[in-house]
Amino acid sequence: MLHYAKPLAQLVGELEKLPGIGPKSAQRMAFYLLRVPTEEARKLADAILEVKEKIGFCKECYNFTDKEVCDICSDPRRDASFMCVVAEPRDLIAMDKTNEYRGLYHVLQGVISPQDGIMPDMLRIRELFPRISRLGVKEVILATNPTVEGEATALYLAQRLKPAGLKVTRIAHGLPAGGDLDYADQATLISALNWRREM
C-alpha cells in the first residue's frame, strides 16, 4: 500500500477487513468508489451508518430488526407450535426464503466452539427454554450447519430439550437439488444416505 495516497490506502485497508474480500477485491472496490459521484459514495456511507444506528436484536428471537419485535415474531399467521433454531440471522433468512416453513425462529448468535472459546452460556440458549414453554412449542427443529460446531450445538440442544418431552428434529443434509453424485464429497454422500426417506 506504499504506492497509494494515505486516504486511499486507508480505504483499501478497511475494505480488506470485510469477509471474503482480499487485497485485489478491496483495491477494485476502492477505485470504483473513487469513480462514482460523491452523492453515490455518501449514500453508501449513510446506509452503513444507518444500519449501525438503527438495527438491533429482536427481543423475542434475536434476529436483526429495526423494531423491538421483528416482523416474523409479530406475525399472527405464524405457527407458534414449531420453533426452528438457527445459528445466525442469515440462516433464518435462508430458511424463510423457502416459503415452506411457517413457524417461529430462535437465533443462537453463533455455535458452540470450545477451540474458539465459545461456550453454550455465551449463546442465546438460555433465552430459548422459557420461550418454548411460554409459546407452547411442540416441535423444535435444529437447523445448524453440518459442521463439527453445528453438529455439537445441535446435539447439546437435543440433549437439553428432549427431557422436556418436546419433539426435537434435525434438518436433513445431503445432496443439493440438481447436484451430481460424482462431484459430492464423501461426508455429503454419507449424510444423504443416512437421511434418506421412503418414497
Biggest β-sheet strands, sense, barrel: 4 strands, parallel
Provide the number of structural domains. 2
Mean pLDDT across all residues, rounded? 91
- Give the uncertain stretches in residue-range form: none
Strand content: 5-15%
Number of helices: 7
Helix-strand pattern = HHHEEEHEHEHEH
Structural class: alpha/beta
Strand order of the largest sheet: 4-3-5-6
User: What's the total count of β strands?
Assistant: 6
- Return the CATH topology of the largest domain: Dna Topoisomerase Vi A Subunit, Chain: A, domain 2
Calculate Rg over CA atoms: 21 Å
* CATH class descriptor of the largest domain: Alpha Beta
Task: Provide structural commentary.
The chain is of the alpha/beta class. The strands form 2 sheets. A 4-stranded parallel beta sheet has the order 4-3-5-6. Strands 1-2 form a two-stranded antiparallel sheet. β5, α6 (148-161) and β6 (167-170) form a beta-alpha-beta unit. It folds into 2 domains: 7-54, RecR Domain 1 (Helicase, Ruva Protein, domain 3, Orthogonal Bundle); 77-172, 3-Layer(aba) Sandwich (Dna Topoisomerase Vi A Subunit, Chain: A, domain 2). The protein is globular. The relative contact order is 0.08. α1 (6-16) crosses α2. It is built from 7 helices and 6 strands; from the N terminus they run αααβββαβαβαβα.
Secondary structure: elements and pairs:
Layout: H1 6-16, H2 23-35, H3 38-54, E1 56-57, E2 64-65, E3 79-86, H4 89-96, E4 103-107, H5 128-135, E5 139-142, H6 148-161, E6 167-170, H7 186-194
Parallel strand pairs: 3-4, 3-5, 5-6
Antiparallel strand pairs: 1-2
Helix pairs in contact: 1-2
